[in-house]
Amino acid sequence: SSPPLQEIISGESEEESNGVNLMEFSDEILLHILSYVPCTDLVLNVRRTCRKFATLCLDKSLTHTVLLQKDYKVNKDKVKQLMRDIGKEIYQLNMAGCYWLPSSTIDHVTRCKNLVKLNLSGCHVTSLRLSKMLSTLQHLRSLAIDVNPGFDASQLSSECKATLSRVSELKQTLYTPSYGVVPCCTSLEKLLLYFEILDRSREGFMLSGQLMVGESNVPHYQNLRVFYARLAPGYVNQEVVRLYLAVLSDRTPENLHAFLISAPGSFAETGATKNLLDSMARNVRLDALQLPKAWINGSGLLQHLKFNNPFYFSFSRCTLSGGHLIQRVINGGKDLKSLTSLNLSGCIHCLAPESLFRKAEDDIDSSILESLVVSCCNLRHLNLSAAHHHSSESIGNHLCQLLSRLKHLLSLALPVCSITDVAANVEKPPTASNLVPQTFGRKVRIGIQTYPRNLADQANQKIESSVFWALMGSLRFLETLEIIGSSFSSAMPRNEPAIRNSLPPCVRAQSVGDSEVAAISQLTYLQSLTLAQLPNILTGSGLINIGLQCQHLRTLSLANLGMMGKVVYMSALMDMLKHCKCLRDLRLEQPYFCAGAQFFQALSHCSSLQRLCIVSRSGTLQSDAVMSFMANCLEVIMCHMFMGESLTVCKNLQQSIVRSFQADRPALNVIIFPLLHEDLTEVIRDVPMRHLDEITLFKSRVAEEPPNLWW
């Protein structure tokens, strides 16, 4: 562990005895070190320690951009003092997701007269406060805000509208049907829209996008280069986005180079959207594309769209065949070195020549994947999850072998059934664990061999020459890995009751277990790991290897591993957690999970942990163990537990945590609630969007949106 800050500043560490003093380093080195310290600490604490730091902490390289978005210890008073001390020096301010700060905090942003970029997504901002603030920010060019119920554009002053007229980048999250500030932004080049409108209000009234009809102005898209819209489930979100698109369909901006719409479920094409796509095919050349599946399926659209130097494609959940993918997108093997991110999640036929008579479980055509790998050799983010990608027995053509050529990959998502060795899967008779039904019924007692607990013995059990082991060895710089069962669905989907039954895993996935997990430990730079529906986990021994070897791991999500009636990997998980010193986010989804004293004692070793989410049907918890854990882990600001306990037990524990720790942890967000309770969806709607989107809800996040979409 690193020495305390005071020790670093004074230089009184072990190194001093060897003649090394931190204060003797050059200013350049010290500035680099200080860049890792939160700005609030630099300005309010570190600069007061000595004259040298008093000067360095106010260096332009440290005050130009202020990031508060995950500074969970910041409060209103600290923001006020920070703005007073360095407000005029701040050009970029990111307060995204600071849901705990009162709306009056925004008033202090007016001190930042030179702001060029401002992110207030997830902050409480009223129309009047927004107007007052923006009236003073004449240099602003980039803005991110939420539009909540009660927003009234008529309350925006003329000075505010003048500022908005110069804004070229706008990110707007909508919680109510509205154009927000879009009509005021007449110079827009980049527009990002997040639709989070629920179909019903808290009072139970049905909402409608028709509330927007009659609003005085319409969007100005003539200079638009990037249009991005992400829709949460719900009819109203679809209704509202169509109103935004209506203007685009009348006249497509000539400079449009990125057009992206992420819509779950069915989002039907209309005459207006068809006109828009036809106009795009005639008039623009795109660099990034994502469309709802209904707009692509069965149409010849991709054949007519023109691309320049594409860097992002998403065909998530489309029935696009591999033949069409190669012919229409990659132009029969055209050089696509510019493509850095590709999302084929749920695209079940994307590695097959055609989809007409093909079953989803049929073997893939390795030549299609090979063409993809050769043409898109610079891919950094690739998502192939939520599909059955079964390799044939052809030597050298396994999916893992072909993917190992993508040496630049930073993030990868694969279905569990795609990583199994074909020969091993065919030749080996099913193990005892494979014969156990994946249900919640009575537990079956079976005899199983004892699995080794260290990496060397694991290798003897399952040869290191397996295709997945070799893939992990070749992707040395991978930072994010997701291995998700093709039929896995979380017990806690968005805006719906908890799912009570899960589908069985793919037959090809039955042999994937501890050895494959151990192979992941080769990824030295791994920061985020998701494992879901790995049926052959017998002890979880591979998790210990990951804990020991992957010292940069920050995010861990485990779901439905091994037998469903018992948490077979609990002992290994507790051993693993003792080594995860950098772990910040932990999500566990497993029936019958026992969150007791031993588990929380092991979890207390994760000194950097900030967010914990446990989803467990019939799961149990020990209230005193949770309280002790919260007292020991001072960085934890989010505790979400959806278990099998009674509503009374859950409410009492939640109140105890809030009462004991809220004062010292301003960002504390606690939800303890029965998973199968009928009011779960009402509870979920109050979760801050940052936590809901990043950890509470399970989803594949690899190539979910273009890289660097927003700062």
UniProtKB/TrEMBL annotation:
Gene3D superfamilies: 1.20.1280.50, Ribonuclease Inhibitor
InterPro entries documented for this protein: F-box-like_dom_sf, F-box_dom, FBXL18_F-box, FBXL18_LRR, LRR_dom_sf
Pfam families named among the record's database cross-references: F-box-like, LRR_FBXL18
GO terms (BP aspect): SCF-dependent proteasomal ubiquitin-dependent protein catabolic process
GO cellular component: SCF ubiquitin ligase complex
Lineage: superkingdom: Eukaryota
Domain F-box: start-end pairs: 19-66
Protein name as it appears in the record: FXL18 protein
Origin species: Herpetotheres cachinnans (Laughing falcon)
Organism taxonomic ancestry: Eukaryota, Metazoa, Chordata, Craniata, Vertebrata
